[in-house]
Each structure stands twice: as C-alpha cells, then as structure tokens.
Amino acid sequence: MKGLCQMNPLKVSVLRTSHVYRLCIMGLLSVLFILISFDLHCGTWSVCKPMYMRRSGAGCALLGDTIYVCGGYGGAEGRGPSHLDTVEAYNTWLAQWTLVTSMNVPRCYVGACPLAGKIYVAAG
Predict the structure, then answer these.
(1) 119 bridge partner residues
(2) How many CA atoms lie within 13 A of 95 on its CB side?
(3) Among 116, 38, 37, 25, which Cα is nearest to 69's?
(4) Angle CA(83)–CA(63)–CA(121) in degrees, nearest 5?
(5) Is 69 a domain residue?
(6) Domains in the chain, number
(7) Residue 77 in 3-state DSSP?
C-alpha cells in the first residue's frame, strides 16, 4: 500500500480512533467498502473487514470506539440504490461492522459530526 504521505487527501477521509496510535482511512470519491488502518507505532497498514454496502460520498464520524459511516452514493460500481440512507458502525476494538438504524432521508456527499453523544449529518 502507499505510504501515508502519498495518499490523495481529496479521495479519503481520515479519522483518529480513540486508540491514539491508529489512523483510519476510507474512500470518499471512489465507490469502496473497505476501511484501511495505519498503526503509528508499527508503521504498518492493515485492511479491515469490508462494509456491508459499497459507497462513496459518505459521512464519517468517530463516537467513542466506533466509526460511523452515514449515507453515501451506492450506484454504478456500488450496484446499489444511488442515494443511501443506511448507516454502518465499525467497532474498532472488535474489528466488526454492524448495520445500525438508517437515516430518515437518503443522503450522499455529506458531512458527519459527533456532538453530545449523537451524530449529526448535514448536506446531501
């Protein structure tokens, strides 16, 4: 895999997990269903389990030890509905994805932000 400095910042979303030594990166502009993790102590990359649904343009937010991926675009290469209302949660300790309650409205190319124990998704 490419080194951290070689990653195109326009194509990824970077989240620092509560494990201070780990960065998580996922695609935003290309239809992906993977999460890539970089261990700062070991200097190694690892590919995490795939999400249930391919998506691009999803909002990502970290709440506690869980990364939430909200909405996105699943059409074309994703072979799913074009605008998604689904939300997937990745438990960073268990290394496992879970489908959680969907959003009320399908949205893509959104921003997601944790605030007071909730995740807010805007735009799309």
Answers:
(1) 114
(2) 7
(3) 25
(4) 30
(5) yes
(6) 1
(7) helix
Q: What token pair was written down for 40?
A: 């700062």
- 22-36 pLDDT, tens digit each: 666 665 545 566 777
69 by Cβ neighbours in 10 Å (0-12 / 13-18 / 19+) ranks as buried
Phi, psi dihedrals of residue 116, rounded to the nearest 5°: 50, 45
Does a structural domain hold residue 112? yes
Q: Is residue 36 part of a domain?
A: yes
For 10-61, give the DSSP string: TSEEEEE-SSTTEEEEEESSS-B--EEEEETTTTEEEEPPPPSS-BBS-EEE
Residue 118 lies in a domain: yes
Task: Tell me the pTM.
Answer: 0.76
**Chain centroid offset of residue 39 CA:** 17
Residue-range definition of the domain harbouring residue 90: 10-122
Question: For residue 19, what is the domain's CATH number?
Answer: 2.120.10.80
Which pLDDT belongs to residue 17?
Answer: 52
